[in-house]
Amino acid sequence: MSRRGQVAAGILLLWVAGLAVLARRELFRPAAERLATAGMRVGPSASYFLVRQHGEQIGFASTTVDTTEASIVVSDYMVAELPVAGQYQRATATTRVTLTRAMRVRDFTYRIETASGPVEASGTMEGDSALILAISASGEPADTQRIRLPGPVLLPTLAPLAAVLIDRPRIGRSYTLAVFDPLQMRASELRMTIRAESLFVVTDSASLDRDTGRWVPALRDTIRAWSLVPERAGEESSPSPLHVSWWVDELGRVVEGSQAAGMQLERTAYELAFENWRLDTRERPERPTSARDILEATAIASDAALDRNRIERLRVRLEGIDPAGFDIDGGRQSLSGSVLTVTREDSAALRADYTLPMQDTAGFGRWLSAEPLIQVRHRSIVDVARELRGPHTDPADVAERINTWVYRSLRKRVAIGVPSAIDVLRTRSGDCNEHTQLFIALARAAGIPARGAAGLALVGGKFYYHAWPEVYLGTWVAVDPTFGQFPADAAHLRFTTGAVTRQVALLRLIGTIDISVVEASERPGGVAR
Questions:
Q1: Model pLDDT for residues 425-464, shown as the tens digit of each residue
Q2: Which residues of 249-277 are buried (b: 16+ CB within 10 A; e: fewer)?
Q3: Beta-carbon neighbour count of residue 518 at 10 Å?
Q4: Which among 70, 417, 432, 488 counts the fewest CB atoms within 10 Å?
Q5: Using CA atoms, how far apart are residues 404 and 385, in angstroms rounded to an integer?
Q6: Gap between the Cα atoms of 396 and 387, Å rounded
Q7: CB neighbours of 133 closer than 8 A, spacing ≥ 6?
């Protein structure tokens, strides 16, 4: 090769190398860096949605985006009349997130309000490494804590917007985002993949039909959208976004969305989403049909006739689920392949290996301490716990006293929302979650380590979603103040432990799990102690 040819070849190689460096820099930039650049393209918008369940509208939702030169404010609102236990129960959820123009969260407020009272979580970022989180319920003083973060995070509700801003949507493309769930109080990675592309006809505006008094579509628009499906990014993923899938347009705005329990969002004009629903609520039947009832629709029929109060040992086959991320194996439960064996604790397990007050709290500080919605040090909780404990030093005896008191003191009433222990003590009513929260608060105030558990329990020939406490007596023992059982029967299938907000993981089971009874051993006569 001539000298001139060598120089030309060298220039060509440098040019190719430069292109490679540029391509690598652009194609493999961290998602946070690409998101920061794309955030400048976000403009103000407003979207309105029908909220449907099994094809019938049960509520209304909206998303608004407001922008300034320095910030982006995203507000989500949803209100729904949920058919639960033979009646309609209204619930509202509001989220307001302030971001910088680089799509970094500055602060947020997340509020859920039901007949049981409001629960609010608010957070303020300290740079990208810490979050000051405050959680309060029913007007009680907020529980505030500082949570360390691995880096910049988003709230799960921002995932569709962020994913599409990071890169142009294309079938097969995946995105991984760091998200923070305010109710579970932890950060995790959320991976989303575009599975399909389609066209949707969306109503942009509506007009009033004078004859019927209802709003009807006026103008429609054809929109291209992509199916964005969240996937698990490891066992520690925040479960809450895993049961939602979206169809989003090229600006990251939701066109349609699906959630657990047959709930769906459908973008449309405001009048069709809200005004028509408001008119429909006046004409609906007073009570929902059993086919629409969320409790009945999510129950799983048992293939064997069993009396739960007498079940000492139960073996069931679980099909249709991935056990990863659940607390299925351990303690009274053992999982072998797809077969789960649950054994009710015997009298030996009810003889604690310590006396009250507990001298060595090493390893149990978490299960003796106050936490959001479990106000262990509140004067009212302390007074009741002290009265129930009295002079007794046997943890099993005191735990049974608390279990019996909660069972007898609370009016059994189905409720929705996230319960607060002090609020339950004041209202003296609720379902399994209220019973569990109050029991845990009283047990911890009495010096007994306690934690929540949730999963499925057999009631009337069906497995229903249920919550109950566990107390530490040398080993973790399941008890049930809702049913008045100490210990709980073996027809309690535990899937999660910890805070009540961990129950969102159970949404992974709805519509997928199948249970068949392999073997059941019953006590010959009598009921649970």
A1: 999 999 999 999 999 999 999 999 999 999 999 998 899 9
A2: beebbbbbbeebebbbbbbbbbbbbbbbb
A3: 13
A4: 70
A5: 13
A6: 16
A7: 121, 122, 123, 144, 145, 146, 147, 182, 185
Query: Any idea what DSSP says for residue 203?
Result: E
Distance CA(317)–CA(516), nearest Å, equals 5
Query: 495-506, pLDDT tens digit by residue?
Result: 999 988 788 788
Structure tokens at 220: 């429609």
Task: Pinpoint the alpha helices (H) of 39-158.
Answer: none
Q: How does pLDDT run across 300-314, given as a tens digit for each residue?
A: 888 888 888 889 999
Whether the Cβ atoms of residue 422 and residue 381 lie closer than 8 Å to each other: yes
Which residues on neighbouring strands pair with residue 245, listed in sequence order? 258
| Per-residue CA distances from 121 to 136, 184, 406, 479 (Å) | 7, 10, 27, 30
Secondary structure tally for the chain: helices H, strands E: 11, 25
For every residue of 453-503, DSSP letters joined together read: EEEEEEETTEEEEEEEEEEESSSEEE-BTTTTBSS--TTEEEEEESSGGGG
Determine the Cα–Cα distance for residues 83 and 91; give it in Å rounded to an integer: 11
Q: Which of 239-248, 294-303, 329-338 has the highest mean pLDDT?
A: 329-338
235, 189 in Cβ contact below 8 A?
no
8 A C-beta contact, residue 396 and residue 347: no
Residue pair 136/3 in contact by the 8 Å Cβ criterion = no
pLDDT value of position 255:
96
Average pLDDT over residues 376-387: 96
Sign of CA dihedral 183, 186, 187, 188: negative
pLDDT value for 34? 73
Q: Which residue has the higher pLDDT, 139 or 335?
A: 335
